[in-house]
Amino acid sequence: MDWFSLLKFIHVTSFAAWFGTVFASLFVLRTLQPELTGPPENTALHQQLLKKFIQLETKVADAGFKTAVISGLVLAFFFYGWSVWIFVKIGLVILQVIFTMSYIIKAIQPLTYPCSTDKYRKWYKLFAISFTMFALILLVTFFLL
Ligand code: HEM
After folding, report:
1. Contacts of 117 (CB under 8 A, 6+ apart)
2. Where in the chain are the domains?
3. By alpha-carbon position, which residue is closest to atom 20 of ligand 1?
4. pLDDT digits 0-9 by tens, 98-114
5. Where does the sequence pass through the membrane (predicted)?
6. pTM of the model as a whole
7. Is the peptide bond before 34 cis (omega within 30 degrees of 0)?
8. 3-class SS shares of the chain: helix, strand, coil, % to 5
9. Distance 67 CA to ligand 1 centre (A)
10. Which one in 21, 31, 69, 143 has a CA-CA gap of 20 to 30 Å to 93?
């Protein structure tokens, strides 16, 4: 059994699942924008749809994130070693969690619908933060690790 390939397979697949749910959320938020920023008639139903989607998305994203981190740490422990860039990568993952969670608590959770398009843009800022951190982690992984 090639454990290194198996672990890398688990690591990359769980990252892809996590990353995929973030992209899917962006498309859902974009699709629901007219209903959640428009006249209040349809808001309740679409807010419910958004809540259900986020519940399901969070489950997959959580599992993907935890599996990516655990398999990454196991890869480093048994195969790769503890280089400076591994610690940079771990630091970036920690920062990603801090930045996204604090922005969700500060700017996303207080939103009530319908809201102005301006306020709704906070969702897109959350995605910008998340994708920037993904890009930094992937750059470190492919060019520096
Ligand atoms: C604590 C967190 C993490 C640790 C300790 C870690 C560690 C590692 C290690 C040791 C490798 C193997 C490198 C090699 O063999 O050249 C690897 C590969 C990889 N990691 Fe992570 N990783 C972590 C999180 C992440 C995250 C969050 C992502 C995505 C954003 C990610 C994306 C990748 C990818 C795409 C590869 C495959 C690179 C290749 O095939 O050359 N990792 N990681």
Report:
1. 33, 37
2. 3-143
3. 141
4. 999 999 999 999 999 99
5. 6-29, 86-105, 126-144
6. 0.93
7. no
8. 90, 0, 10
9. 11
10. 31
